[in-house]
Structures
1.
Amino acid sequence: MNILARLEHWKKEGAISLEQHAFLASLSRGEPFSLFLELNVLLYAGVLAFVAGLGWTVTTWSQQIGDVLVLIVLSTILAGCFWYCFSRAPAWSAAETAAPSPIFDYVLYLGSLVWCVELAYLENRFHVLSGQSDFYLLATGGLFFFLAYRFDNRLVLSLALSSLAGWFGLTISHWPSHQDAAYRQYALLYCLLVGVGGVLLQRRGLKPHFFGTYLNIVANVLFWALLSGVFNRQGYGLWFLALLIACGASLAWGVTRRQFAFVAYAAVYGYVGVSSMFLRGVFDETVVLSYFVLTGVAMLVVLVQIARRFGRPA
Amino acid sequence: MRLYTASSEETLRARKLLTDWAADGILTNAQYERLEQETISELRTTNIFLRLVLFLFTLISVGGAVALFFVVSRPSEQTSGVLFLIFAALCYAAAELAVSQARLYRYGIEEALAVCSVGFLCAGMDLAPFSGRPYSPKPYAAEFLVPAASAVFSLWIWRRFGLWYAFLAAMIFVVFLPGYWTSSHSAQHVTIAVFYAAGLICVAAVRPRHHFDYLADAYSLVEAFLWLGIYLAINLQLSSLNLRTQWLGIGTIASEFARPFYWATWVLIWCLPPLVLARGIRQKDRFVIAVGAIVAILTFVSNKPYLGWPRHTWDPMLLGILLTGVALFIRRWLARGPSGVRYGFTAARLSGKDKRWMNAGSAVLGLVSPQSITPAPQTSSPDFRFGGGASGGGGASGEF
């Protein structure tokens, strides 16, 4: 019985109303057929291609075109984008708000990317903050956070989070020694800042739907940082302990909230970390392969149990 | 031929649709709970994340076990080939058992076992009959059996288990076939395109029987793959191996092919996108429409290298303006129709699933895109350095 026959059956049984039947049957037949997703992908690809070409052109021809013309063009596009967004945006709300027009999110995204191109151009040509270029990233991150929260835009929120991550990375690169350890500490600091920030914003009801984005980014950065500590030749015990705690927390969060990406993070990152500990200094290939067979099967048993108890598709 | 009964798969599909409709608020909770009872399936499923992790750990276990066996027994090359074939049979039997006994459906475990069986068959076919022969730069004609058997077995896995990527694997194996039959590059391209076209004809013949049933999406995806395969086979600028060299203008592939063949493929790459798009729109087929759009973009991108014209830095800008313009035009044109619908198409969002896809996609793409659009520095002037974006932030994080 295909879905149309099933809908007919449910209508006859009285399980669904006539209107629901008509609507669901037409939806199942693709009448009308929605091109919403395709048109959005096309818009995104268009913006991305445009900015890529813009950056490439500016890079290649800046000396021939001249700074003034380049800056006028970039500033005009930037001003146009932000004028469009600020003039069209509805009043701010802490809750999730729909974009006022179908192209609104992409105009904002275009403006944000052009801002990056212009900022990079300005610094490169005029060295305004010479030697302190990481502050551009901090300022850019701040601007993008403001825009993301003002216009309820996840694309720009992701840009803000990656700019902030870039600022942490550039800041630490000023320290010449012990880079690995320092990077790790800054990654943890980044996780702490973004994680706590995300929780506070969610608790205060400020765009709580952004929380998932924060959490996924924090989880991945945290696991990478902890794993890099576990891979250390010395002093890895504490990092290993921290990894186990993080895996336990991720697993518990994933299972209780039914967000199974976190179960997957715990399984994969945890397995890599534990394997690196057990196989440290082991070079006998029979032992190594036996380890993979045994632990692989053990992981399968545990994951099947989790899948049976919690993991059916919602 | 299929491992799962049609009624089981239809029930699962109905259950999934019910969940979507309830999430969209089309059905009330009471209706959902009542109808859900009618869509209980005996098949065991899980969500995408656990499916992926189960797939990974099955691969690790099976791969580790087979590697351990070879390390312990250290067989000769030919014996290894035979053993690989035995392992392929064992993996396949295990996959069948996982479905027939444990009733696993897209659970990761049975998928990984099926994938391993294809891999082991390929390795076994390569080692068992053809090992121990003297070295020759030219491949033995009978060696075509390796990709041929692998392609046939992948197709079988696709039919039996309904795994879409097994069909893709079969298409990839087909790419290696003509190399054993002819050294002519033109003939190789044509042979691959003919194979895919034959597949397309078969799929197009079967599809009308499966409108609105559980196989509709599977056939739609397969047709989309075949169209894309045909396009890639005839677009010489994309399918040639030394792509980077040609696109940088260091070499040219026009000389590799006879002029009539080269220009015939150029004509075809312009003819195919409208054909695919028309077919997708007529069938209201999402995957085929998407492939139509992709091949149209690829045609624009590869046209200049085809004609031997120089690339300009502003070409991506023009492409971006074109894509945005087309998207805006279609959206407005559809929105102006009665109730926002024209010829059965609408630009409005009808399902909450689209929004969930957009949300997930925008979070990921927002992180990825700054790196992908940041241009390389201008090399002509040593004092001018611009771009980078190694740490994200839309290129503003580069080395200034």
Note: Chain B touches chain A through 108 residues (CB under 8 Å).
2.
Amino acid sequence: MTSRRQLQTIGLVAAIGALVVLSVVPHLASATDTQRWAQALYIGIAAMGLNLLTGYNGQVSIGHGAFFGVGAYTTGLLMHQHDWQFLPTLLVSAPLCFVIGVLIGFPALRVKGLYLALVTLGLAVVFPDLTKHYVHVTGGTNLVALNRTELAPPAWVPTWLSSIGRDDQWAYYVTFALAVVLVVATYLMVRSRFGRALIAVRDHEAAAETVGINAARVKVMAFALSALYAGVAGSCAVLVDHLANADKVQTFQLSIKFLVAVVIGGTATVIGPLVGAGVVVSLQWIISDVLPKRVSSIGVLERTLGNPAASPAIFGILLILFVFVLPDGIVGGVRRFWGRLTSGRSGAPPTAPAPLTT
Amino acid sequence: MDHVSRQRRRASWRCLRVFALCTVIALVAAACGSSRRNDTTGTTGGNGTTPGGAPQNVVPTADCPAGQDTVGVSGDTITLGTSLPESGQYAPFIAILKGERSYFEYLNAQGGVEVPKGSGKKYKIKLVDKDDAYDAARTVTNVNSLITDTKVFSLLNVVGTKNNLGARDTVNSECVPDLLIASGAVQWGNMKFPWMLGSELVPYPLEMRVFVDYLKKNKPNAKIAVLKASDDFGQSYSDTLQELVKGTNLSIVQTTGYDPESSDVKAQVTSLAATKADAFVIGAALLACPSALNAMGDAGWKPIVYMSGTCVSKLLLSAAGKNADGLLTVTPLIDPSDPANASKPAMQLYTQQVKKYSDADVTDGIVAYGWTTAALMAKILESSPKLDRASVMETARTLTDVKGVGLQLADSTWNTSAQDWFIGETFQLVTYDSTAAHTKALGPITDLDGKTAELSPPALLRQ
């Protein structure tokens, strides 16, 4: 019991520490690094949503890049063509993604596991085609590029928030604030009646129904909520990356990135997906930006590690290693490690990772 | 215990509700209080002449940030930046970088580029590259980083249409030259954005113009079948072709799109082959080109083939083998894989230097393109009266009769002016000989200088 209390205290201290560090980042880092942090945050938001669906509810989706895209295009088009401010666009993009999530969630009730993964993959494949067909904006393409004026923070924002550098700080703080809001929301949600229903349906659908849980409703809600998170992430991405864009390869890669962030950070943990997103973004940055420069003068390494064409392979190998060493993700691993330390002996068996599918 | 948990649950519900309420209030407040700061309207370009008719700078500088004009020049070094796919599906484009690097290494070994020419002041060129995997979002990040962190003087040959469109506002409001963009799209003719200029690649609509002229002469009643990538790139081919066949005896029998992220076009080509059309236009990129040619051969269809100039590469054409024989395409450069060119001094210099400074395949047209683009950049720099961003951009926009740059065709000249925003408008129609494995010139050089804008779909020039 003490170890649990200690763990909670440590968790609290770590959370406050993380909050402090994350809130001063844009004042210390360069504009490019701030943008990179903000990217980690929005990928984390989408991963948190996917975690509700996959980690807590056991439904696998590899199509959340499409919901992300819906959010991004909604915000991008409203800001670019209708001169909206960023925050009000969330009032449109989030509910829109929620509704689309409900619409997709209903047919998803019929399919499970790998079949569901395939159906959602279809979403990621179809979405870029839809944008190519209906969106003709920057230079007549499906790209929606925003200019500095459109991305500027609204007049009521205190200047110290956005005074240094380009308006990257505003983008960062908005994403950061939304991430904090959604972490708290997730925390409360998974501890609520609804959260327990999510887990019950994941672990044993039939048993859950016998105790009065409407499994269909819970599953559809999980889908819709996770779509909402992905939509909010997409909206933030417009502010951070200055554009909304959809290509088949990228929409698919994004969907996978969300899933990877969930698995690396820890499935069915509140903070795990954010940690995972941080790791994914840093790894990619190290592999494709830092490493090639470091090894540029070392002959053999330059042609292997330093070769940008090798970066996806290095990333893949690291992922495999991660899953082998920390099968329950970083957050799960830290918990396990702490449990071993405080129990005084190494006899405590590791907790099994939360199952991905039912 | 049960009682406690229920209490806790109630408390958490209350928390959730309060929190939800706060969020909604905050959002509504934001929505109500939001009136966009309408202080600027973005950069607007000049049209080259004042109302009085007196010539004026092509590149307006009134809205440019002050004191940024010579950023990227320090001591005797000019720093340039580029972003291109070095990983992923489009990684073969890294050959461009190898060509560029070889040229700059060669130039630096000579002491560098003299700016302005005749001043005796020489600068070495440093090219900083960043990988974007052909993802427009990463290109924008890279461009921002190159401008703010690396502090480059100018961008050079950033690859891709959407990739450059994504950075369009940044380069134009920061007044950083986005020079020699690696895309033949017509969007670089949008007069609202004067800080961008396409490279010597042949603008896509001109390719159709030269092919239609060829058909009018050789098969005036031809029925044409079109394969196009389902994006703006493929659209520029099919739109211009449609315009050009109007009022001729030529006709388009079928246009079929394919997904630009895949290179499997067999089904589309088989359906096009069923039309037994006399001519076949391949508005495709990279691997889709040989794949289309092979599907055509498999179907036993033998039309007159026109293939996009972006596919002119030894690698791609040899993948189609015999099926590529006799196809037509265009190129602004001499073919490095043609042994007949080996004796030309420009070719000898290129072969020798690229072999010296890189591991690239010198017979690859993509390497030759990189080499030539770098040479054109050096030419623009040395022609500039002063070494600042505005002068260099102005120089790039007012090129007169540029000849003999890199592997530029012997009789071609490159021009730009206040009305003419494209470089690669003089080029050679060529046919591919699969036995000899290189292209052969067909007739004289085509000179369509200043014609791109009128042949372009107007919507693409304005948006």
Note: Residues 346-350 of chain A have pLDDT under 50 and may be disordered.
